[in-house]
Amino acid sequence: MYLEEITGEIILESSKIECKSVLNRKDVVGWLKTIAGFANAFGGDFYIGVEDKSNKLIGFDKKNADNERNYFNNQVNEHLVPRPQMSISFIPYNVRSNVRYLIKVHVPESSIKPVILKYDNIPSIFMRRDGFTNGATYEEIIEMSIKSQNNQYDIMVSNVQYDFSKLSKLCAFYKKYTEGKDLKEKALRSMGFVTENNYLLNGAVLFLDDYKEGKTEIMCSVFSGLNKGSQKIVTVNRFNGNITETIEYIIEFVTQRMNHTIIKKDNNRQNVDAFPQRALFEGVINAVVHRDYYLNGTQIQIDMYKDRLEISSPGGFYRGEKFGKTYDLSGIISKRRNELISNVLVACNVMEASGSGFDKISEEYASADENHKPYIYSSSDHFTLVLPDLTYDNGIRSDDIPAISFFPLQNGTEYDENVLAYCYCQKRKVSDIAKYIGKSDSTYLRKEILENLVKNGYLIKTKEARAHYYLTNKDVVSIE
Asked: Which residues pair with 384 in a beta bridge?
């Protein structure tokens, strides 16, 4: 029997599920870190008595199930601080008239973070992300510590005194998008922009006229081809300014550089922008509002390619699900990471209180074909909105070739990135690789490019029948 037969749904190991046949007594850290990682991330379910990968039921009789549960509790009590809040239950099932039991441990997200695993007097902090449990980064540890106090960055009190005269750019922005209305000090105070003692909140500081620090940094790039790396970079601009300046800088940067075309429709001609203005605007606002301002040394990334625009914001969706890729923008529900910044932009009429920005983006692309549909992908440390270029006839590549990151080879070629990206999600034959990168199936391709990547551990070579296949080694190449 398999776990799916009991739960009634397909269960795959993910950021929220992990299975173990038995608890490994010789490697306690190997499974305890998963419990800690669940508690430090978004919670999860840990099944004991279920074979890893296959989900085949191993189970226990009643006595051994009791022993396994007790051992689990003892190890958690001894090594995890603070102990995560968990619920442990037995799931019975029948095998040839005999009752067997699984153990299900439900671990909710901990309200007190970080949960620390201490073993042999060595403390470690783990984070569950994208189906794996790894050591938490410095930024994640800082973020966990602050969030455990239920404090968002933008609503913490700064040491900057309030001075309305230093908010002229915010006032101008407000007037522009509210049909000429003036921003009143009373409105700012009512939304908690400033404390009773006249100190600005952190989020309010980001709207000051002279703000130039790294919290709002953006980087805008234009690439001549379909991906980074070997393709020529046409433009790279960095910008530091307050939030309103950031929004308008991105809009202007993209608008000035995107393509335009005219299409015939019935008896008239219609102007088409590469990226619909409303979709572009909503995408930028979402990036600013959902940005994780705790993360220093990061920036909102604007990347323009031949076929698309990518808007990436630091930090995954706040207390929301991580997902690899989704076209269902309307189905995305994410809690606001920055309440004050959101409230200010709602007041400025550039954002709706209901948070319907993704719906508007979908509406702008409603008449586009399948190769021109926008999508979003998210990981533990960033989320990216992808807007297809409506003037690029081929649309976005439909074969799920990702943007990748890897340390370049010392004796590599200009084709390495394209090859590794093409072979990342599935193994490829030499003839297919040659066609994709625009080279002939030659000795140069096989020896100087492919075999060189194999030799350096970037490609894994296999043989099926008479054909050789190549698959990118995910241990040394990662998706951006």
From this structure: 312, 377
